């Protein structure tokens, strides 16, 4: 069974071909146009997707050594994401499904991030806890089954990836900044400065206070001081960003009596987060799961993985399916236009 999976919800155009649920190609084209603008510009993102999607598709087919005529179904991200960007992928998917007369399978981007944990050989068994940390989301998800997920905690304001990016911007490091803070932090001291760590009740998170604290701290320093102590500052900021993720994950694991913890989303690529969670899980005798780096940030292989579960149960979408920029985890997405 060959599946052609498309991801275009934000600023990465990605196509993956999966053979019996296993990715045999996964091409990601990241849009550099946003770098100099310090954040994703939605109108530019959709135009870039439109420019790139055919080339990305050709490359994915070439690597997989298959042709469009071999495909059995088309999988595509329906939401959440940027309206224009989602529409490029969905329209491309509909054109292909219609032309080839094969089914289309709509996929929830956030559920696909969770199911990216099922791409490697060593996958978790249901139920488990998943910490979803991306540019747009920070949440703890109780994963009961591939189609049964419950959000037990989420951010009240900024997502952790967004906070990473905003702090990096204030430090003049460029966009997207999570990876850059991660790299700098590796050579710095976490004790250099104590930034406030938000403490919300239950399993929720908040990052707006930290963002403001970083802004005021940096305002008081000279550019030379910041440059000289970049590694230490990044390390201290990173600790404040990661601490709530560690604390709340542990609390949720214990409260729900689980023994498997997974992380996914762009911030799951963070070296320190991976190391710390792995250490906690070892100590507590829990099994820790994390996707390969290429499946942490936005990619079509995870869309294909989510669609593979749907394919096995013949859960196809109507060709009238519309994109849903604010789609929630667990929400029914197969609504035609007008709903
Ligand atoms: O999942 P993703 O690719 O896109 C969304 O759906 O949002 O996540 C992108 C986010 C960005 O905020 C980026 O800065 C962050 O993931 N990120 C990282 C790292 N690599 C990417 N944050 C911290 N450390 C990293 N190594
Ligand atoms: Zn994502």
Topology:
Blueprint: E1 2-7, E2 12-19, E3 22-30, H1 42-64, E4 73-79, H2 83-100, E5 104-108, H3 109-115, E6 128-133, E7 138-145, E8 148-154, H4 160-170, H5 178-185, H6 208-219, H7 223-228, H8 230-255, E9 260-264, H9 271-284, E10 287-289, H10 300-312
Parallel strand pairs: 1-4, 4-5, 6-9, 9-10
Antiparallel strand pairs: 1-2, 2-3, 6-7, 7-8
Helix pairs in contact: 1-2, 3-10, 4-6, 4-8, 5-8
The chain binds 5'-O-[(R)-(carboxyoxy)(hydroxy)phosphoryl]adenosine and zinc ion (ZN).
Question: What does this 3D model show about the protein?
Answer:
A five-stranded mixed β-sheet has the order 3-2-1-4-5, sandwiched between helices. 41% of the residues lie in helices and 19% in strands. It is globular. The chain has ten helices and ten strands. It binds 5'-O-[(R)-(carboxyoxy)(hydroxy)phosphoryl]adenosine (KG4) and zinc ion (ZN). Zinc ion (ZN) binds at residues 109, 113, 134, 265, 298.
Brief descriptors of the model:
339 residues; alpha/beta; five-stranded mixed beta sheet; 10 strands; globular; binds 5'-O-[(R)-(carboxyoxy)(hydroxy)phosphoryl]adenosine; binds zinc ion
In short:
Helices cover 41% and strands 19% of the residues. The protein is of the alpha/beta class and 339 residues long. The site of zinc ion has 5 residues, from helix 3.
């Amino acid at each position: 069974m060959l599946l052609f999976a498309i991801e275009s919800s934000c600023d990465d155009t990605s196509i993956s071909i999966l053979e019996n649920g296993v990715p045999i190609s996964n091409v990601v084209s990241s849009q550099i146009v946003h770098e100099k603008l310090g954040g994703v510009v939605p109108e530019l993102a959709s135009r870039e997707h439109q420019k790139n999607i055919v080339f990305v598709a050709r490359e994915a087919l070439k690597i997989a050594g298959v042709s469009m005529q071999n495909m059995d179904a088309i999988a595509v991200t329906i939401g959440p994401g940027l309206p224009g960007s989602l529409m490029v992928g969905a329209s491309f998917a509909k054109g292909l499904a219609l032309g080839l007369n094969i089914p289309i399978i709509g996929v929830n981007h956030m559920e696909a991030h969770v199911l990216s944990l099922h791409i490697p050989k060593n996958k978790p068994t249901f139920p488990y806890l998943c910490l979803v940390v991306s540019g747009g989301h920070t949440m703890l998800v109780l994963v009961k089954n591939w189609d049964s997920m419950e959000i037990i905690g989420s951010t009240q304001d900024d997502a952790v990836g967004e906070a990473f990016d905003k702090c990096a911007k204030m430090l003049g490091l460029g966009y997207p900044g999570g990876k850059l803070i991660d790299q700098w932090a590796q050579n710095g001291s976490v004790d250099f400065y104590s930034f406030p760590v938000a403490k919300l009740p239950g399993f929720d998170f908040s990052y707006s206070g930290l963002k403001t604290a970083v802004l005021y701290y940096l305002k008081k320093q000279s550019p030379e001081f910041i440059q000289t102590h970049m590694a230490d500052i990044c390390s201290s900021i990173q600790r404040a960003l990661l601490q709530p993720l560690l604390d709340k994950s542990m609390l949720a694991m214990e409260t729900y009596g689980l023994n498997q913890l997974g992380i996914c989303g762009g911030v799951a690529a963070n070296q320190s987060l991976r190391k710390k969670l792995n250490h906690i899980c070892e100590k507590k005798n829990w099994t820790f799961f994390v996707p390969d780096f290429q499946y942490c940030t936005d990619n079509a292989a995870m869309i294909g993985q989510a669609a593979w579960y749907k394919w096995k149960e013949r859960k196809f979408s109507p060709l009238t399916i519309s994109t849903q920029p604010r789609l929630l985890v667990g929400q029914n997405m197969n609504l035609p236009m007008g709903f």
